[in-house]
């Protein structure tokens, strides 16, 4: 039996095959062998600069916090961002607000 590939997302060795998909039980990532060769998605800020995990960014406009009366002000610095797939493609922690999801179009790289 051939060895199964490690998870491309979390590098776990505990992967298993489910039909034509490979599944990681630790992070729930599913992929095919063909998708491993695809290029990773590139995330860009409002100025067109490429963003990477761990970058520091600043917010370029006041953003209302959904479900709260709070507002994230222009110039708020966000350190150590994490890029994720989805509509809001930045996961981060902001001092005074906690865990947040932001869109890359509303930030600029420092």
From TrEMBL:
The segment(s) forming the Protein YjdM C-terminal domain are 44-110
- Domain annotation Protein YjdM N-terminal: ranges: 4-32
Q: What PANTHER family is this protein classified in?
A: PROTEIN YJDM, PROTEIN YJDM-RELATED
Q: Which family does it belong to?
A: Belongs to the YjdM family.
Which NCBIfam families does this entry report, sorted A to Z? Answer: phnA (TIGR00686)
Q: Which protein is depicted?
A: Alkylphosphonate utilization operon protein PhnA
Species this chain originates from: Bacillus badius
